[in-house]
Amino acid sequence: MARTALITGITGQDGSYLAEHLLAQGYEVWGLVRGQNNPRAATVQRLIPDLRLIEGDLHDQSSLIAALEAARPDEVYNLGAISFVALSFKQAINTGEITGLGVTRVLDAIRVVNPRIRFYQASSSEMFGKVRETPQNELTPFHPRSPYGAAKAYGHHITVNYRESYGMHAVSGILFNHESPRRGMEFVTRKITHTAARIKLGLERELRLGNLDARRDWGYAGDYVRAMHLMLQQSEPDDYVIASGESHSVREFLAAAFGHLGLRWEDHVVVDERFLRPAEVDVLVGDAGKARRVLGWQPGVGFADLVVMMVESDLRELTASGAASASASASAP
Ligand code: NAP
Ligand code: G4F
Question: Which atom of ligand 1 is nearest to the CA of 123?
Fold first, then answer.
């Protein structure tokens, strides 16, 4: 019989890749959408017609219970969150409510409705924050540097707690940054590739950014959702770091993206202190050795190919939308 999965955060980057992956494995897939008329619901439904959408909000316990009762999933993937670190400084309490307490709401709904449901929590390398060792692995202590990181650390611990207290098959995937053409425009990689493509097409002249020295371990989202699924297929629940093992600076990302378009990033980038954070995570690099050994997981797309994939996709989208020709005719004499 086909297995059933319920994904929170279905309208986000990872939600759509995970839904496609699970459908390809023969799952029936349900996605939780919030709001009374969420425009992103229509977008994801167009992209993935076989997906079944159901209303619910990580703020609202009864809606989570109702979603579990309607979808009757074998597996729940909790990807829903306020996921933008910069926003978490401005909405610290809301971030705690959704990114942190939201995890407990889902876990407790599962405990009440059917504790045999397997649960995946989308934990984050942001929990390592001011890192205690390099590279970071499953045993590295946490030192979050943002309300988002603190909320994710709570989500991680409560997941482990429900596993140990109630024998639930609950796992925490500690994922390092992963990107794609579907990445939100607010994150630095997509902000760079989209603006670089606009500059190439003559639609923009400058790109304003914050800290160019920050280093991240960037991988491809399509590779990382495979790891989420693998974690829930193990006989024993456990936690895993998922990472590429390479660290690159924002500056290096800029050089790769602009360089691919034959541009010099130094001619266009302006450092703007509005994009600096009250506390920064300077450098992240993960050790995914346990995932390789136990899950047999490994990434397929490396840093250079990821940057090119994102730049090319943004160029294609902008060109297809007619933005470039509209700008040319608007500026014609
Ligand atoms: P994303 O694109 O920002 O998506 C976040 C999702 O959460 C959206 O679908 C959003 O729905 C949903 N959401 C927000 N508030 C909600 C609420 N109150 N109730 C229900 N859903 C709500 O994030 P992503 O990059 O796909 O990441 C997926 C998960 O992995 C997140 O938990 C993120 O924190 C975590 N993570 C991401 C990375 C990464 O590098 N991408 C790394 C480590 C961990 P709306 O459309 O309604 O806003
Ligand atoms: O792309 P970012 O906003 O991602 P960040 O903060 O690393 O968080 C992402 O990865 C986490 C995993 O480690 C996830 F848990 C989280 O949900 C999210 O997906 O920023 C990356 C770096 C930061 O150091 C930031 O200060 O880029 C730096 N940066 C410099 N200028 C900028 C900008 N970031 C953004 N978003 N916008 C800028 O203009």
Answer: 44
210 lines ligand 2 (CB under 6 A): yes
**Residue owning tokens 């009250």:** 278
**Quick check: CB of 115 below 6 Å from ligand 2?**
no
State yes or no: is 133 an active-site residue.
no
Rounded CA gap, 249 and 278, in Å? 19
> What are the average pLDDT values for consecutive 10-residue runs of the chain, which has 333 residues?
96 98 98 96 98 98 98 99 98 98 98 98 98 98 98 99 98 99 98 98 98 98 99 98 98 98 98 98 98 98 98 98 67 47
Residue 65 and residue 149 share a domain: yes
Question: Nearest CA to 218 among 174, 173, 175, 177?
Answer: 177
Q: Which ligand is nearest to the CA of 284?
A: 2
Indicate which residue's Cα is closest to atom 38 of ligand 1: 177
Residue owning the nearest CA to atom 14 of ligand 1: 81
Give the residue numbers spanning the domain of 263. Answer: 188-216+247-284+301-324
CATH number of residue 280's parent domain: 3.90.25.10
- Same domain? For 228 and 192 the reply is no
Q: What does the block give as tokens for 16?
A: 């759509």
Residue 148 is among the residues annotated as catalytic for this protein: yes
- The verdict on pTM exceeding 0.70 is yes
Q: Could you tell me if 121 and 101 are in contact, meaning their C-beta atoms sit under 8 angstroms apart?
A: no
Sign of CA dihedral 302, 223, 57, 158: negative
Do 157 and 206 belong to one domain? Answer: no
> Helix, strand, or coil here: 81?
coil
Ligand 2 contact, 176 CB (< 6 A): yes
**CATH number of the domain that residue 12 is part of:** 3.40.50.720
